Automatic annotation (TrEMBL):
Any one GO BP annotation for this protein: tRNA processing
Residues in the signal sequence: none
Name assigned to this protein: tRNA-uridine aminocarboxypropyltransferase
Organism: Acanthochromis polyacanthus (spiny chromis)
Family under the similarity heading: Belongs to the TDD superfamily. DTWD2 family.
Length: 324
């Protein structure tokens, strides 16, 4: 996301608008530019606030780092007399109006005590059909924190390091050292422990690489999900039938930690709608790699790497998919 809006000054829309709305801009922006003449320098603004005082901002305006970019686009567009960036285009679900998912979001953010930290691989940012934005739209501000990167350390990410060292932090990653999340919380009283949950967002190979190469992720207690749930994210191929999307993992984890199964239903609602919209517009159902291998439907060339072959063989029981 661009950190400022200065690039709009040279856009064709801005140039055309400057020629036809110079007078309006002088009034709206308080400029000393005369029609057809050069700009006169304005006297520097003198602040009456003491040094170090916070800069006041208009009510409803977000602070730096939480900029409402859609509001900023609309403000600039209104000043220029254009209406190309309308509020109907940018909705809370961040999708076009024709495929808006806002009706499937909860009327109010879900009240949860658990705080999620989604550690996202940079490649996920460019994916159109991501599930993390839907997850964030369902939760209160500050309950779904997205941190993008591959490598994390205490110097560059002190806040994440502090979360990893917190005794109440869990990292959701399956493995031989993982404890079933339901077993962990079954003896805890509701509301007595506030957990942080770290979820790695990326492909399975990306998530594995990030987990193994970041020592910070080995500090929290490692947990896994033991519920049998088929993924509803049918527009993206999963390695096996039990693999879930990031949103689905978060939905199951929150329902367990908050002792409220309704949370899972509410969070999965926009995901199901997303898949339904995509299927209606020509997308195809993606079966898991396990399903394709078991049913002889896997039509891609088999890997030559023995380690990859063994990994694929693990997806189907007692069956060699490729001759040695």
């Amino acid at each position: 996301m661009v950190d400022n809006l200065s690039y709009l000054e040279e856009s064709p829309v801005a140039k055309a608008s400057e020629q036809t709305h110079d007078n309006d801009l002088m009034i709206s922006l308080g400029s000393d530019v005369a029609p057809g003449g050069p700009a006169k320098p304005s006297p520097p603004a003198v602040s009456k606030d003491p040094p170090g005082a916070p800069v006041p901002r208009p009510p409803g305006r977000a602070a730096a780092g939480n900029v409402d970019y859609f509001e900023a686009f609309n403000l600039i567009d209104n000043l220029l007399g254009n209406h190309s960036f309308t509020s109907s285009t940018f909705l809370p679900c961040s999708r076009p109006q024709k495929v808006c998912l806002c009706p499937f979001l909860p009327p109010q953010p879900l009240e949860v005590s658990t705080c999620l930290y989604v550690v996202q691989h940079p490649a996920e940012e460019s994916r159109v059909l991501r599930t993390v934005p839907l997850l964030a739209a369902c939760l209160p501000l500050g309950k779904c924190n997205v941190i993008v990167g591959r490598r994390f350390n205490e110097e560059k990410h002190p806040e994440l390091a502090a979360v990893c060292r917190d005794s109440g932090t869990l990292i959701l990653y399956p493995g031989p050292k993982s404890q079933n999340l339901e077993d962990l919380v079954q003896y805890q009283e509701v509301g007595t422990v506030k957990h942080n949950v770290i979820i790695i967002d990326g492909t399975w190979s990306q998530a594995k690489n990030m987990f193994l190469k970041n020592s910070l992720f080995h500090l929290p207690k490692q947990v896994q999900l033991n519920r049998t749930l088929s993924s509803q994210y049918v527009i993206r191929t999963q390695p096996s039938n039990i693999c879930l999307s990031t949103l689905e993992c978060a939905a199951v984890a929150l329902s367990i930690l908050e002792r409220n199964d309704e949370i899972q239903e509410v969070l999965l609602r926009p995901l199901k709608a997303l898949c339904s919209f995509q299927l209606q517009h020509g997308a195809q159902i993606h079966h898991s790699k396990e399903h394709l291998l078991r049913n002889g439907m896997y039509d891609k060339p088999m890997p030559k790497n023995k380690r990859k072959i063994k990994r694929m063989e693990k997806l189907i029981t007692d069956h060699n998919i490729c001759p040695r």
